[in-house]
């Protein structure tokens, strides 16, 4: 939409679509925090997300070069490509979370999980176990 040079409405719609990435940062933080178990693993993953966003904010404006005025086609292509990759990564993560939950809900996983129940369930509640090692952990999507 930001490539639309003929209409101001198309350009305005493009600007609105580009600026929606700021609102999704909150969703990214929440999704990361909800789908990573284990205190250390959660903190490191959130720091990586925050650092990546900061690096992107440093690099992003550098793609808008004076030599590309007034259209800034290379910068717009870069922004569009990074947004497309982010959408693809989100979709792949969604598929992985669905697959992992189905695998943990399978009958064989339920049998292993039932053996872990009982006296250990209260102790396991307070353990700092990651999402991969905890048989009762389910991903949010």
Describe the structure.
The longest helix is centred in the middle third of the chain and has 32 residues. It contains 6 helices and no strands. The radius of gyration is 21 Å and the shape is elongated. With 141 residues, it is an all-alpha fold.
Q: Helix/strand/pairing class, anyone?
A: mainly alpha
Helix/strand order, N-terminal first: HHHHHH
Number of helices: 6
Rg calculated over all Cα atoms: 21 Å
Tell me the major beta sheet: none
How much beta, percentage-wise? under 5%
Give a quick rundown of the structure.
With 141 residues, this protein is mostly helical.
Question: Could you outline the blueprint of secondary structure elements for this entry?
Answer:
Blueprint: H1 8-19, H2 21-34, H3 39-59, H4 73-104, H5 107-116, H6 120-125
Helix pairs in contact: 2-3
Main features:
141 residues; mainly alpha; 6 helices; 67% helix
